[in-house]
Design brief:
alpha/beta, 7-stranded mixed β-sheet, 4-stranded antiparallel β-sheet, 17 helices, 34% helix, globular, disordered C terminus
Length: 554
C-alpha cells in the first residue's frame, strides 16, 4: 500500500539491495556515502535565491522530498550500525526498511547533538503506550538530564483537553513525579512544556510539578514571529470541522462502523462506539475496536474531502480566496498524500483569517489542518505539529537546526510528518526506541545515559496498542546500542553534579571514535576506549549542521 510506505527509505533500501543481490555487501558504505552527497547537494540547492529552486538529483528520485534542515552523516552512521548488527555479514536477508530507518535516525542524532536546544515528543507510542500514561522511569531520567543541561522539552500531543492541566498531568504523571522526587529546580522544571491539540493549548510545568497555562499573549503575542492559532476565527474553524464531520458520517455509514463521533472546538474524531453503537447498528463492526484498515480509509477519505473543499472553492468555503497552486505545492512537497501536506502553506499558519471572518466567509482551508489515524481512533484537528513546532521555536528563540522532533506517525495517515517542514525528525515505533535514541544522543552530547533506575508505583494497564504503523513493526523494535549492565560507576553531567535516583553510563557502539572533537564542557578528560561513544566525528564539529530527512522520517 502506497500510504504505508516512505519513498526515501524505499530508495535507500533498494540501493542497498543491489549490493546484496550481487553478493557485494562491501558496497554498502559507499552507497550510503553517495546518498550522503546527494543530501548535501539537495540542501545546497535549497539555499538558491528565488522562489523556484533547481531540482536536485535526489528530488528527481524522490519527488515527494522536501527540505533538509541539516546534513546527514549516513556513511558514518551506517558503519556504526553495521558494526553492532553485522548487516553486511548476512547472505540470506537483505537490509530491511527498519534497519534503514534506524540508520537515518542515528545519522540525524549524530548531526544535531552538538547544537540541540529544543526537543519535541509525540505522546502515544513515543513517551508512553497508545492510550496509556507515562510510566517509564529510565526514559524520564534521560529527559531530566536533557533539561538539567539546558534543553527545552516539549510534549506536542493531539490530545485536546483545552486548558485543563489536570487532564494532561494524568498522562505524564510518572514524568512529573520524577521531576519532584529528584529535586529539580524551578528553573529546570520550567523547561518542560505540553502543547495540546497539536498547537492550540500551551501549558508549562511550575515549581510544584503542576501544568499551568501559558498566557496566549506570552507565546502568541506580537513579539513572537511564529504562527498564532488564537487569531484563527471560530467561524473558519467550525467550517473546516463541518466538512470533516460530513466525511466522517458518510464513512461511518458506508463502512458500517459502530463508532461514536466526538466534536470539540478545534477537533473532531471517531472512537469505538461501545455497547450503545452495538445496539444502534446490529450489522457492523468497531464497537470495541476499529480496524486499522478502516481507520486508514476514513482518514484518506476525509483528507480528500478537505482538499476538494479548498481546490473547488465549494459552498462551505464560498466567498474566500483559495490557496494558490504554487502555495499548495510548496507546502505539500514533503509528502503529497500525507497528513502533513494538509498544511495550506507554512505562511498560512502565520496569516490567520481576519476578525470579520463570518462576514468575509474565508476558506476553511486557509487554516492548517491535520487528519490522522490515531491507532484506536481517527481525528481531524485545526492546526498541526508544523504550526506547533514553529510556534515553540519562535517563543523559545530556537532555530530549525537546533530543534528535534521525535514521533511514530510519519506515514500518510500520521500526524508527526507535518513537523518535517520546520525541524529535523526522528522516526521511532515505541517508547523503548525513544529511550535508545536519547541514550545515543546523550552520549554524543558528552553526557552520560543511565543504567540503574528506581521503579515507579504500579500504573493502570494501558490500552492495547493498535496495529503497527509499518508492517512488521513490532519485530523491528531492535535496540540501538544498549547501556552497560547495573553497577557501572556513576558519572556526572556537564553541570558537574549527579541527579538523584539514577546512574549514568554511556551507550556502547562498536566503532572507534576520535578524541579530538569533544563537546565543550564534556566531563571526559581521558581518551575513551575503542568501544565508547562520547565524541562526535571530527567533520561534525564544523558548524554543527544537523541533517533533516523529510520523506524518510528521520
Amino acid at each position: 500500500r502506497a500510504d504505508r510506505r516512505d519513498q526515501l527509505i524505499e530508495l535507500i533500501k533498494g540501493e542497498l539491495f543491489h549490493g546484496f543481490a550481487l553478493g557485494m555487501p562491501e558496497t554498502y558504505p559507499s552507497i550510503m556515502g553517495r546518498l550522503e552527497g546527494l543530501v548535501a547537494e539537495h540542501r545546497g540547492l535549497q539555499e538558491t535565491p528565488g522562489d523556484v529552486k533547481p531540482t536536485s538529483r535526489l528530488k528527481q528520485l524522490v519527488p515527494t522530498l522536501s527540505r533538509f534542515h541539516t546534513n546527514l552523516p549516513l556513511e558514518e552512521a551506517w558503519s556504526r550500525y553495521d558494526s553492532k548488527y553485522c548487516v553486511s555479514q548476512r547472505s540470506h536477508i537483505p537490509p530491511s526498511f527498519h534497519e534503514v530507518r534506524h540508520t537515518l535516525n542515528l545519522a540525524q542524532v549524530m548531526a544535531i547533538a552538538e547544537n540541540l536546544e529544543m526537543i519535541c515528543f509525540d505522546g502515544d507510542n513515543t513517551l508512553y503506550s497508545d492510550g496509556g500514561n507515562f510510566s517509564h522511569v529510565p526514559l524520564a531520567a534521560t529527559i531530566c538530564l536533557l533539561m538539567e543541561n539546558g534543553v527545552k522539552v516539549v510534549l506536542i500531543t493531539a490530545a485536546g483537553y483545552g486548558w485543563d492541566g489536570a487532564a494532561y498531568e494524568t498522562r505524564v504523571r510518572g514524568l512529573l513525579d520524577l521531576f519532584l522526587s529528584n529535586g529539580l529546580s524551578e528553573e529546570v522544571m520550567a523547561r518542560f512544556f505540553v502543547l495540546g491539540g497539536e498547537c492550540n493549548y500551551l501549558l508549562r510545568c511550575d515549581a510544584s510539578g503542576r501544568l499551568v497555562r501559558v498566557p496566549d499573549e506570552e507565546w502568541q503575542g506580537p513579539q513572537c514571529a511564529g504562527p498564532k492559532p488564537r487569531e484563527w476565527s471560530e467561524h473558519a474553524c467550525s467550517t473546516l470541522l463541518d466538512v470533516a464531520e460530513k466525511s466522517f458520517r458518510a464513512s461511518m455509514e458506508d463502512l458500517k462502523l459502530r463508532a461514536r463521533l466526538i466534536r470539540k472546538p478545534r477537533g473532531i474524531g471517531i472512537i469505538p462506539g461501545g455497547e450503545a453503537a452495538l445496539v444502534a447498528k446490529p450489522v457492523g463492526h468497531g464497537s470495541d475496536k476499529l480496524k486499522a484498515e478502516a481507520l486508514d480509509e476514513v482518514v484518506l477519505r476525509v483528507q480528500h474531502a478537505l482538499r476538494n473543499a479548498c481546490s473547488s472553492n465549494s459552498t462551505s468555503c464560498k466567498g474566500a480566496p483559495s490557496a494558490t497552486s504554487d502555495t499548495a505545492v510548496a507546502s505539500t512537497a514533503a509528502a503529497t498524500s500525507t497528513a502533513a501536506s494538509t498544511t495550506a502553506a507554512a505562511s498560512a499558519a502565520k496569516k490567520p483569517p481576519s476578525a470579520s471572518a463570518e462576514e468575509a466567509g474565508p476558506s476553511c482551508l486557509e487554516l492548517p489542518w491535520c487528519a490522522f489515524n490515531g491507532g484506536r481512533d481517527a481525528w481531524v484537528d485545526v492546526g498541526n505539529k508544523s504550526v506547533g513546532v514553529q510556534a515553540m521555536q519562535a517563543f523559545l528563540g530556537v532555530s530549525c537546526s537546533a530543534s528535534l522532533h521525535v514521533g511514530d506517525q510519519f506515514l500518510h495517515t500520521g500526524n508527526d510528518v507535518a513537523a518535517r517542514e520546520c525541524c529535523p525528525c526522528i522516526w521511532i515505533v515505541s517508547p523503548k526506541e525513544t529511550l535508545k535514541v536519547l541514550e545515543i544522543l546523550l552520549g554524543l552530547m558528552g553526557l552520560n545515559s543511565l543504567s540503574d533506575c528506581p521503579a515507579l508505583p504500579p500504573q493502570p494497564a494501558a490500552a492495547t496498542t493498535a496495529a503497527a504503523a509499518v508492517p512488521g513493526q513490532a519485530a523491528a523494535e531492535e535496540e540501538l546500542p544498549s547501556p552497560p549492565p547495573p553497577g557501572t560507576p556513576t558519572r556526572r553531567n556537564i553541570s558537574g553534579r549527579a541527579i538523584k535516583g539514577y546512574t549514568y553510563a554511556l551507550p556502547e557502539l562498536a566503532v572507534p571514535i576520535s578524541t579530538s572533537s569533544s563537546r565543550p564542557g564534556s566531563p571526559l578528560k581521558s581518551p575513551p576506549s575503542p568501544m565508547q561513544v562520547g565524541k562526535l566525528p571530527p567533520y561534525l564539529s564544523i558548524g554543527g549542521a544537523a541533517p533533516e530527512i523529510h520523506d524518510s522520517g528521520v
